[in-house]
Amino acid sequence: MNWFFWALLSAVFAALTAILAKVGVAGVNSNLATAIRSAVIVLFTWGLVWALGEARGLTSLGRRTWVFLVLSGFATGLSWLCYFRALQLGKASQVAPVDKLSVVLAIALAGAFLGEKLTWHEWLGGCLILAGAVVIALKP
What is the pLDDT of residues 76-133, one digit of tens each? Predict the structure, then answer.
């Protein structure tokens, strides 16, 4: 199983997340809903790490790894708080595509900060995602 398989599964679960979250945030404060979701994720992932015996790798993590994983965690938390609030206020069919503008931003940031050589494939794909998100977001 290569990266594409896992990325496709990620997309499937992200789609389910949008639909399940939209139903779940009805009548609940979006921050509280995010906290509940986050707690489930923490319990689920730590359970998986312990069950697979992967916790022993924790002691070998360097300072740089810790710093960037913690910063990534803060970015994820802020993203989820904003996402749940957007789902409370808007339609899932509009919120989810706009949220996926993160793909376009990730492509640009990968080129700018990670030094990834972007081909016309990445540029075209990013532009199409951007165009699709704009079209969906602007529909009445």
Answer: 999 999 999 999 999 999 999 999 999 999 999 999 999 999 999 999 999 999 999 9
What is the pTM (predicted TM-score) of this model? 0.85
64 and 18 co-located in one domain: yes
Residues 119 and 68 in one domain: no
Q: Residue 3 falls within a domain, yes or no? A: no
* Domain extent at residue 127: 100-140
Show the tokens assigned to 71.
């910063």
Examine the domain organization and report whether 59 and 104 are in the same domain: no
Q: Compute the CA torsion angle 90, 12, 97, 74 (nearest 10 deg).
A: 80
Count the domains in the chain.
2
Q: Is 137 helix (H, G, I), strand (E, B) or coil?
A: helix
Radius of gyration, alpha carbons of the chain: 17
Residues in the chain: 140
Buried b (16+ CB within 10 A) or exposed e, 80-115: bbebbbbbbeeebebbbbbbbbeebeebeeeeeeee
**Tokens for 48?**
């998986």
Query: Which region holds residue 83: left if phi is over 0, alpha if psi is between -120 and 50, else beta?
Result: alpha
